[in-house]
Specification:
mainly beta, Fumarylacetoacetate hydrolase, domain 2, 2 domains, 12-stranded mixed β-sheet, 5-stranded mixed β-sheet, 20 strands
């Protein structure tokens, strides 16, 4: 099931995207979105009689995390190597503010403080229930679904600071979308990023150093996760700079694609 958050010009709503999809998870041109009554994370999937053509609505970030986005660093060996880092012995966690979340088509604002902002295409996990100390064998019980993420990073600030908060936490530095896919085998999903139409990242979740179950178990041994919290699972090699005027598209097989343009912040 594909759960989206959208607007027709009024208040945001949630809906279920219907119709056929291709191998990348892209719906057909005649796909529809059926509105839901309330937030499905809290009240379940309650269909209404409101229906819209998908192309006639504006998609928003499919979830606004109630408290946090948990990022995972260096979770692909190739990415760790390209930045001159060792593979961590355990998952390397950092936090992105929930105010960094934007949706499909929203601008990524290039901050005045940086001169080296990078894209990082990733598979993102959406948590479905309050959870703490989740054992590996029960992780699937606490996952609501999956979406596409871009862990935008001011690389120069990340290197200069002691921790990652500033370099990864600017407003608009966490695009998510286009929707949440609730049923997905994540063992071997292709993760790609295109910059201005050119393929710059091409990886697979089969190469994750720490798989999703391990990540959730590790994170919840430290902190409580709430419904709507998001985990960014790490990026494959090929990260690089993007500049105002560029367009970046991240795609994950079985989910879809997420496109944002880079805009200079006034």
């Amino acid at each position: 099931m594909r759960i989206a958050r959208f607007t027709t010009g009024d208040d945001p709503q949630y809906g279920v995207v219907t119709g056929d999809v291709d191998e990348l998870g892209i719906p057909s041109e005649d796909s529809m979105i059926v509105a839901l009554a309330g937030d499905p994370l809290h009240v379940g999937v309650n269909l209404t009689d409101q229906e819209h053509q998908l192309e006639a609505v504006r998609l928003l970030a499919p979830v606004i995390p109630r408290s946090k986005v948990v990022g995972i660093g260096r979770n692909y060996a190739g990415h760790a190597a390209e930045l001159g880092n060792e593979v961590p012995a355990e998952p390397l966690m950092f936090l992105k503010q929930n105010t960094s979340v934007v949706g499909p088509g929203d601008p990524i604002f290039y901050p005045r403080q940086s001169s080296n902002v990078h894209y990082e295409g990733e598979l993102a996990v959406v948590i479905g229930r309050i959870c703490r100390d989740v054992p590996v064998e029960r992780v699937r019980d606490v996952i609501y679904g999956y979406t596409v993420g871009n862990d935008v990073t001011a690389r120069d600030l990340q290197k200069n600071d002691v921790q990652f908060t500033r370099g990864k936490g600017f407003d608009s530095f966490c695009p998510l979308g286009p929707w949440i896919e609730t049923e997905l085998d994540t063992s071997d999903l292709r993760v790609t990023t295109h910059l201005n139409g050119d393929l710059v990242q091409d990886g697979s979740t089969k190469d994750l150093i720490f798989d999703i179950a391990t990540l959730v178990a590790h994170i919840t041994s430290v902190m409580t996760l709430l419904p709507g919290d998001v985990i960014l699972t790490g990026t494959p090699e090929g990260v690089g700079p993007m500049n105002p005027g560029d367009e970046v598209e991240v795609a994950v097989t079985g989910i879809g694609s997420l496109t944002n343009k880079v805009v200079a912040r006034d």
